[in-house]
Amino acid sequence: MPTITFLGHAGAAVRASAFRLLADPWLTSAGAFLGAWHQYPRNDHLDVAGLADADWVAVSHEHLDHFDPWFIDRLPRRTRILIPRYPGPAFRERMAAAAGSRQVIEIPAWERFPLDNRGSWITVIPELSPMCHDAAFLIVADGRSMLHCNDARLTAAQARRAKHLAGGRLDLMALQTAGASWHPICYEYPAAEMAEVSMAKRVSKLRSVQRLVRQAAPELAVPFAGPPCFLDAEVGRLNWVLDREDGAFIDPDMATDWLREHLPGQRWDHFRPGDALDLDTGEVTRDPVSAAFSFDDSFREGYLRKYAEDRAGAIAGVLAEFPEPRPGLHDRFAAHFEYLGGLSDYFLGRIDMVVRFEITGPNGGVWDVDISPDGVKVGDAAPGTRPHYRITTAGRWVEGVLDGRIAWEDLLISFRLSLYRDPDVYNDHLVGLLKHANAPALQAVEAYETGRDESERIVVESDGVSYDIPRYCPHAGEDLSVGAVVRDGQVHCLAHNFAFDLSTGRCVNARSAGLASRRVR
Residues in domain Rieske (predicted)? Predict the structure, then answer.
């Protein structure tokens, strides 16, 4: 009986004998992240009213391509909303504001939550590190199971545990294969370097999926959750990322082809908005509207032109909600960062850099934020100061962050900014401070990072030399025995693409704790 209807992006509708559940439905015509992201392919032909008539809606995290307040507002009052329990309050508070009088239920990690009185249930599986508030859903409906990974980068151990909880069988495993982050596409790289970094991240993501699926061995594995497209003038230039040959994102069709080639014993398929899969019989019903869509490069230009015309009004409505900032932007900006500076001494010590903000438009300026163990200082940019990060964006977006209408991460993921860093090393704690911006979440990260046990170790070999290293990545806990590759004297963790020099243990591409590596012969 259980049927999965794919809604586009990471959305799925589960129809069981006694209930209907939606997972991460993103259906608004206004897109997401300041109107920058839009569903690709479009899914506005789906019956929104019919989909909204659900018993349960499960939303994995607060990213607006998963958490759609517009759709939440259209749910019946009887619909109950399920979210993971995270260390900080941000997602819970945002969902409560969107849900109104509807019941919002937080599910603790790995705790089975019943969906009916016939044995169906759901649980949440968050990423190991609380730095990332992302979680997968394991759904068991009428005896069939779906591991809906969303954006969560699960470890092999987590995937195997999920399979065990589901009775030793995963009928469907849906995984993100097109990680859509602001790096590298918003960075000021030369064209050749941009292409090289983009392809490296694309392949790393596919390898990560390949290894996770090999460990879980589901009956059917499905690439999904992206990529988006960009429809308005400010970000439309970024659609190069969809190029099939050398774009930064990979579409589900190409991902499926790559994964079939590299893991041929596994059954793979991909689906478009409105496609339905019967988990009992395996029968697939293809949506006739989506069937006319193609990811081919030759199809894209005309498709996106018409799509942009159709959504121009909705996008204009979003942009109108963010007028130019009023006078005093600098003072509000400085007060905001002084508040952030009081949240966690641990994060200040891990950041320890100058971040330059170039705020364009009325009442903007060029301001340096000096973050150090001694605190945070904000002032006009000094000519002799060399910032580690430079972030350029419009004052209208910064004003939205300062008054609480959007979060820093919403702005970062909107791609309505540009970034530069020197040296070109990622600082996870800077991003973590901005995106969490609350003490409980930051305290959870500190407890996780300072309480790790490195006693379990493995031996890896590079260029004929063996190294004894911790089994688990010091960044976010990925099992390096199955979730890493070793090349050129470095171990590359596939979960978040962090690389560590085996001879020194130093992380070479991010500000991270080192890997306690020892040469053994």
Answer: 442-521
Q: Token match 């591409």: residue?
A: 509
Please tell me the distance from the alpha carbon of residue 430 to that of residue 386, in angstroms, as a whole number.
17
Query: Residue 195 and residue 189: Cα distance in Å, rounded?
Result: 9
> Residue 338, Cβ neighbours under 10 Å: how many?
14
Helix (H, G, I), strand (E, B) or coil at 22: strand
**φ, ψ for residue 432, nearest 5 deg:** -65, -40
Q: Beta strands of 431-512 (E only): which ranges? A: 457-462, 465-470, 484-487, 490-493, 499-501, 510-511
Rounded CA separation 212/265 (Å): 14
Interior angle at CA 202, CA 285 and CA 213, nearest 5: 55
Q: What helix, strand, coil percent values describe the chain, rounded to 5?
A: 30, 25, 45
pLDDT confidence bin for 464, thresholds 50/70/90:
confident
Closest CA to 33 of 408, 284, 305, 387: 408
CA distance 33 to 234: 13
Give residue for tokens 């996770």: 212
| Among 144, 122, 215, residue whose Cα is nearest residue 175 | 215
- Whether residue 184 is preceded by a cis peptide bond, meaning omega within 30 degrees of 0, is yes
Q: Which two tokens stand for residue 363?
A: 């009442």
Residues 6+ apart with CB under 8 A from 278: 2, 3, 284, 285
Q: Which of 93, 88, 25, 108 is nearest to 59 (CA)?
A: 25
Nearest to 400 by CA among 475, 461, 338, 325: 325
- Between CA 215 and CA 483 the distance in angstroms is 10
Task: Find the angle CA(380)-CA(386)-CA(387) to the nearest 5 degrees.
Answer: 70
DSSP β-ladder status, 56-58 and 80-84: parallel
The tokens describing 291, both together, are 């069937």
pLDDT in tens, 127-136: 999 999 999 9
Q: Is the pLDDT of residue 476 over 90?
A: no
pLDDT band at 280 (very low <50, low <70, confident <90, very high): very high
pLDDT, tens digit (0-9, with 9 covering 90-100), for 307-349: 999 999 999 999 999 999 999 999 999 999 999 999 999 999 9
Cα 453 versus chain centre, distance: 27
Tokens of 93: 């508070």
CB 347 within 8 A of CB 434: no
Packed helices 395-402 and 329-341: angle between N→C axes, nearest 10 degrees = 50
